[in-house]
Structures are given as structure tokens and as C-alpha cells.
From TrEMBL:
SUPFAM superfamilies: Metallo-dependent phosphatases. The keyword Metal-binding applies. InterPro entries: Calcineurin-like_PHP_lpxH, Metallo-depent_PP-like, Phosphodiesterase_MJ0936/Vps29. It comes from Amycolatopsis heterodermiae. Residues 1-151 form the Calcineurin-like phosphoesterase domain. Its cofactor is a divalent metal cation. Its EC number is 3.1.4.-. It is an enzyme of class 3 (hydrolase). The keyword Metal-binding applies. This is Phosphoesterase. Keywords: Metal-binding. Pfam families: Metallophos_2 (PF12850). Belongs to the metallophosphoesterase superfamily. YfcE family.
């Protein structure tokens, strides 16, 4: 099972559209995971139409229409991997311990908010993933997203992809 992991798209504020490379990944993915800050419902509609399966949550910049359609926390069992998605996990300091306490029955937690790519494993074995942002790099050198695979009940092949600068 192939996953595409994105967050903090901020459309149309930070960019007018998702980069074509990300749309190609949407087409190839079995599951698209979006960790919030969509900003406009149009992208949600588009991803629902073009994804085989979409798992998403709302973020702090998402208004009532998105909050009506998306949960604050999403959970799914994907091929034996217990996935949870949330927009914000708080400050970097203490993140692993907080997430271990808040998500004890989870194997992988995808989050966003910071626009800073993240891939660590907590003391309890929880994998924490933040894909950064494909449209708003902030202080990062590149806009980014992640892909991964689930095979035989395990998350594998987690890869951070850097997007070329918009011209």
C-alpha cells in the first residue's frame, strides 16, 4: 500500500494550486493523508475526487466548512498499521513524550502545523511524521511532502521529497 503524506497546503493563500508532482503522487497513492491547514474546501473536494482513499483532519487555519467535514483527529487501520492524524502536537520539546501519552494505541502519528519535516520514533515506538508543506516552505530550504509504504503490517520506505522552487 502506497501512502502520500501532505500537510499545510494553505490553498489558495500560499499557492494557487498543488504542484503537479504532488498530483502525480495522488494518482499513484493508495491512500492520501492530509494533516490539516487546507484553508479552502476546494482542495478537499479535489482530493476526494482524485484519491483512491483520503484521510484528513482540519487545522488551525481551517474554517467552519472544513471543520464540518473533517475531524480534529483521524484514525485508521491500514494493513495492520494503526495510523492517527492530527494537525498540531505542540512544541518540539517534549513532543515524543506527549505523543506517547496521547496516542498509546497508535503505530504512526502524522502531524503538521510547523511546516518543518519530521521523522522520529518515540521511546514507546510511535513513529512521528510531519511532511512539511508542498506550498509554503517558510524557513525551510524546500517545499516538501512524504511518501511511504505499508507492507506486511509495517510502515516502510518513508521518504521526504523536496519540490523544485516555483518559477
Amino acid at each position: 500500500m502506497k501512502l502520500l503524506i501532505v500537510s499545510d497546503t494553505h490553498l489558495p493563500g500560499r499557492a494557487r494550486v498543488l504542484p503537479e508532482q504532488v498530483w502525480q503522487e495522488v494518482e499513484a497513492a493508495d491512500v492520501v493523508v492530509h494533516a490539516g491547514d487546507w484553508v479552502d474546501v476546494t482542495l478537499l473536494d479535489e482530493l476526494e475526487a482524485r484519491s483512491k482513499r483520503l484521510i484528513g483532519v482540519y487545522g488551525n487555519n481551517d474554517g467552519p466548512e472544513l471543520r464540518t467535514r473533517l475531524p480534529e483527529i483521524a484514525r485508521a487501520d491500514l494493513g495492520g498499521v494503526r495510523l492517527a492524524v492530527i494537525h498540531e502536537t505542540g512544541a518540539k520539546q517534549g513532543r515524543e513524550q506527549r505523543c506517547d501519552a496521547q496516542f498509546p494505541d497508535t503505530d504512526v502519528l502524522v502531524f503538521g502545523h510547523s511546516h518543518i519535516p519530521w521523522d522520529t520514533t518515540t521511546p514507546a515506538g510511535l513513529r512521528l511524521l510531519n511532511p512539511g508543506s508542498p506550498t509554503d516552505r517558510r524557513r525551510q530550504p524546500f517545499c516538501t511532502y512524504q511518501t511511504a509504504r505499508i507492507s506486511e503490517g509495517a510502515l516502510t520506505d518513508v521518504e521526504l521529497h523536496e519540490l523544485p522552487p516555483r518559477g
